[in-house]
Write a structure and sequence with these properties.
The protein is an all-alpha fold and 48 residues long.
């Protein structure tokens, strides 16, 4: 069963930038889990 997933372009750009800077997956994961970042649903940002 194939499942299509939509990729958030901004997220992709951030990950590409992290790779260019030489950050490891572990470093990115550590940053993401050690900082409380607000989570927005697409519906929330569309009305802004």
């Amino acid at each position: 069963m194939s499942q299509e997933k939509e990729i958030d372009q901004e997220w992709l750009e951030l990950m590409v930038e992290a790779k260019k800077l030489g950050l490891s997956i572990q470093e990115v994961r550590h940053f993401m889990t050690s900082h409380q970042l607000p989570i927005y649903k697409k519906e929330d940002t569309a009305s802004a």
